[in-house]
Amino acid sequence: MDTTDETTTTPTTTPTTTPGDPAATARAVATAYLAAWQDGDLATLERLLADDVVFTGPGGSLAGRGPCLEGLRAMAGSVERIDVVRQVAEGEEVVTWYDMTRTGGVVVPTVNSSRVRAGRIEEIRVLFDTGPLG
């Protein structure tokens, strides 16, 4: 198992895939995904999501790149910053714990679990503390 501790407010939006090392690729893609979301970079998000990506979170489930992009677009305006606390990858799976600072300074502790294949995210599962949201 590969573990990486990382704290950053500006992760890169250009993932570096590593042939033969799916954990490194999964970390790079997940980091780029969070950076693109933080920056409102929908073109990069579109490139990182598989056509048949599935999202599951506290607000429900979405299937397909289009619906997932719409959900990300809707939330992007309320995300000021994403600070990665810890990221752990094993094979194609990567789990990222981060603090999402929303407009107004509300910090929402969040965990994102993603499966990455061929450099694209196929599945996203998100859990977060709804307490700070009121």
Main pleated sheet: 7 strands, mixed
What structural class do the secondary elements suggest?
A: alpha+beta
CATH architectural name: Roll
CATH topology: Nuclear Transport Factor 2, Chain: A
Find the count of extended strands (DSSP E, 2+ residues).
7
Our estimate of the beta-strand percent is 35-45%
Shape designation = globular
**Helical proportion, percent range:** 25-40%
From the N-terminal CA to the C-terminal CA, the straight-line distance is 37 Å
The radius of gyration over CA amounts to 14 Å
* SSE succession: EHHEEHEEEE
| pLDDT < 50 stretches | 1-11
Strand order of the largest sheet: 1-4-5-6-7-2-3
Count up the helices. Answer: 3
CATH top level label: Alpha Beta
Q: Classify the oligomer.
A: single chain
Total individual domains: 1
What does this structure look like?
- Strand 6 (107-117) and strand 7 (120-128) form a beta hairpin.
- It is built from 3 helices and 7 strands.
- The longest helix has 18 residues, at 22-39.
- Helix 1 (22-39) runs antiparallel to helix 2.
- Helix content is 28%, strand content 44%.
- Strands 1-4-5-6-7-2-3 form a 7-stranded mixed sheet.
- It has 134 residues and is of the alpha+beta class.
- The protein has helices at residues 22-39, 42-48, 65-76; strands spanning 2-5, 49-57, 60-63, 79-90, 93-102, 107-117, 120-128.
- Residues 1-11 have low confidence and may be disordered.
- It has one domain (2-133): Nuclear Transport Factor 2, Chain: A (Roll).
